[in-house]
Amino acid sequence: MAQSEESQERFWESFHGPNMGYIEEQYELYKENPAAVDSSLKELFDKHGAPDHVRREKGSSQQVTQSGPAIGDVKKLTSAMKLVEAIRRFGHMESDIYPVGRDERETNLVKPETYGLTEADLRSIPASWLWEQAPSGVDDGLEVIERLKALYSGTITFEYDHVNNDDERAWLLDYIESARFNKGVTDDKKTELLRRLIEVENFEEFLQKTFVGQKRFSIEGLASMVPMLDEVVKNSIDDNIEHIMMGMAHRGRLSVLAHVLGKPFDKIFSEFHHSPDKELIPSEGSTGINYGWTGDVKYHFGATKDVKEENNPSGTRITLANNPSHLEFVNPVVEGFARAAQDDRYQKGYPSQDFKKALPVLIHGDAAFIGEGVVAETLNFKGLPGYQTGGTLHIIANNLLGYTTDQQDGRSTRYASDLAKGFEIPIIHVNADDPVACVSAITIAYEYRQKFHKDFLIDLVGYRRYGHNEMDEPRATQPKLYQDIDNRLTSAEVFAEKLEQENVIEANEWKKMKDQVTANLREVYENMKENDSGDAEAKRMPKALTNGLDQFDTSIPLEKLKKLNKDMQNRPEGFTVFRKLERILKRRENVLEEGNKADWGAGEALTYASILNDGIPIRLTGQDTERGTFAHRHMVLHDAETGDRYSPLHGLEDTQASFDIRNSPLSEAGVLGFEYGYSVQAPNTLVIWEAQFGDFANAAQVIFDQFISAARAKWGDKSNLVMLLPHGYEGQGPEHSSARLERFLQLAAENNLIVANVTSSAQFFHLIRRQAAMRGREEARPLVLMTPKSLLRNQRVASEAKEFTEGKFEPLRNQPNLKVSKKNAKRLVIGSGKVMVDIEEAIANADEKFDWLRVLRLEQIYPFPAKQLEKELKELPNLEEIVWVQEEPQNMGSWNFVNDHLRELLQEGQTLRYIGRPRRASPAVGEPNVDKTEQKQIIQKAINPSEGGDSSERN
């Protein structure tokens, strides 16, 4: 750390006479070759600079006026300096941060004898030589060591040597060593902390006794988490932060809901459903909290709370996100919440971001933090322009165990927090039984975040008083640890004893507090009504979800569309586009003129431009999304000479909505979770995520399963998120062919999703515009869209201008370029996606007539357009068979989903047949020639009059 010239002079002034001569002689060697001097002297010169200016200023005739017995031994001084730095770096290794389960911790790295130092040696060194900012009362080296050990090896300790920013390290060192974080902890504050711990612990004890054996994932052993969060809320209100976005798993969730979010006790009690003596419902006037219609277990629910103070009349909203049992997967969702709250999207270009509008707080489990990859994915967001949120406060709720797994079996690192070091996140370890230290820790973390807008992590080290849940018996797997826990007073009792010893509270005063809290809980419980409504029934989904999707007008006047297309040709003055790319973009100028067609890239650009023109912001992210994985999009241009960036959609006139397009990190679970969270928090924004290849979405399966498909039914969270998943069989092997369409159809129920596979740029236009039109409405739901790869430049998916300006999205579409003879049709071929374009091409290249054939494209697979298909079938009087055709293997794709729907529509004597690849373990073959042969056979079977494929007859 660089020193000022003044402080360097003060240091060297302490050396006199022969000592100074020796120092200067060594410094001359150091200048020629730093490695030529003793390493301790090298460190001295590196830190304090040149000593010879002191002699020049004082004059060579100045004589020694004072000396000490250790001044003549330079190595003693440098060894003491090494000891000081070791305490700062390694003091945590013998800190008192474990309430239970650890014997006394010590390390030779912070012992004076390791450096050849005695107490006498240390006493002979002035304190200022070792610690420039030594407080009054610290006069010599021994007192420096004792004071620093108290700071770095107590119930709170610090790791920040891995932080590479000099300003941040200097700030942290000053904050810690000036003990600013401990100032202001008055006796009244301590009493308040004790009362809070008693409220938390007695709430848990009441649940334990009243609802015997019910799971609740108690906070006991980590109760100090609540006053820590109280401090975050207080500071956020004082700083006018609009949103505190919180995410946490199960441990302590009910206590956080009750004490931080203010969820009524009777509401929580009612969610235990029954006690030995009564069925429960909340009392009249209890705060209502909206959930979905199927609900969830009590320790998965979140809540919101609005807090207003005189100094913050606009208020601060606290949000605890709903969270499934997949522990850490809520992390990116919360970051998405925060980013959406920070962005101002109602302006051209990229949104403007204000870090002060939202503060993310994430509470992790110790085993999950180091064990779940989504944690690293989320930490990686901290410095990325499209994903940063100005710093997240992380708390590891460290109960020393992962279910029944000991630490040595669950991680390869010393601490659960060590993952954060790779992201240069400062770390505090703190003993959960010292609430003063815990509140001090969160104070440092909060102030650091506010100053540097970066993440901070607190490892809150405690224990769990019961098993993984209250039905679990932990003594079978951790007998020694639970012997310590059984013999340990609770956090409140430990703190109460300490305050009694300090004469902060009177003897047994804490017991009176405890009795009062218990009496209040008992009163709430006794006043609850009994539920006499009979057997509980599941709620039904909102009626709006059953109303269909055909009420949205997605057409747009031709002149407006042409104007938008023209605006997208604008460039900043002097902006030079790569020559080859400019030719591609130039071709888009006339796509709306008569006789021309807009391919997929042009149609997609028109889609987004028209939505922005409607005043609807768009956020579009994914791996390589700016250009497009298949080089079709080009929505961020790079100046060929300067490298400057420009998006054609930022130059639209008369548009006051942001277009936020970002290349994402190489992540699926983290990024998709972030975009889902963004879409929930910003329901009036069209949020789109694109997978690089559709099958890569597999890495985000938890987000699809637990959040996107089920969150509204479970928790009432509403999302209009769009997911673009490239899909289609072109011989590129298993991972580059299938977006696993079958998995989304398997998740589809209660109109929770829209699953589509469209085959024209106009269909994409109307589908996405319909999705934008549903924003913020009850009809809103996520859209899973299979998008093309090889078809992107195929003119068979290009659309004329009138297809954009007229009509709307067609869930069931006539096969283009095929004359329809409904009277003669004997076979109806139905399919979805690229294979239908292949069939169109095969028919166009064939010589025979196909008046016996009717072909329909199922563009929206879910919700299945049963009524429209039924109407079509009634117009085919001589139909003998329905053939479902697909590219995917029989156990994949849409077949297993559409089979039941099609079978219900069969009339007497009609058969249903499947044409496609056989059942397989892998989605596609790896050899392009084999794939090509298979594809050709599928097409020929579909359009050949002779029967082929698997059939079943309606009986």
From TrEMBL:
Residues 598-794 form the Transketolase-like pyrimidine-binding domain. The keyword Nucleus does not apply. GO terms for molecular function: oxoglutarate dehydrogenase (succinyl-transferring) activity; thiamine pyrophosphate binding. It comes from the Bacteria. InterPro entries: 2oxoglutarate_DH_E1, 2oxoglutarate_DH_E1_bac, DH_E1, KGD_C_sf, ODO-1/KGD_C, THDP-binding, Transketolase-like_Pyr-bd. Residues 918-955 are annotated as: Disordered. One of its GO terms (biological process) is glycolytic process. Keywords: Coiled coil, Glycolysis, Oxidoreductase, Thiamine pyrophosphate. One of its GO terms (cellular component) is oxoglutarate dehydrogenase complex. Residues 482-516 form a coiled coil. It holds the Pfam family Transket_pyr. E1 component of the 2-oxoglutarate dehydrogenase (OGDH) complex which catalyzes the decarboxylation of 2-oxoglutarate, the first step in the conversion of 2-oxoglutarate to succinyl-CoA and CO(2). This is 2-oxoglutarate dehydrogenase E1 component. It comes from Lentibacillus cibarius.
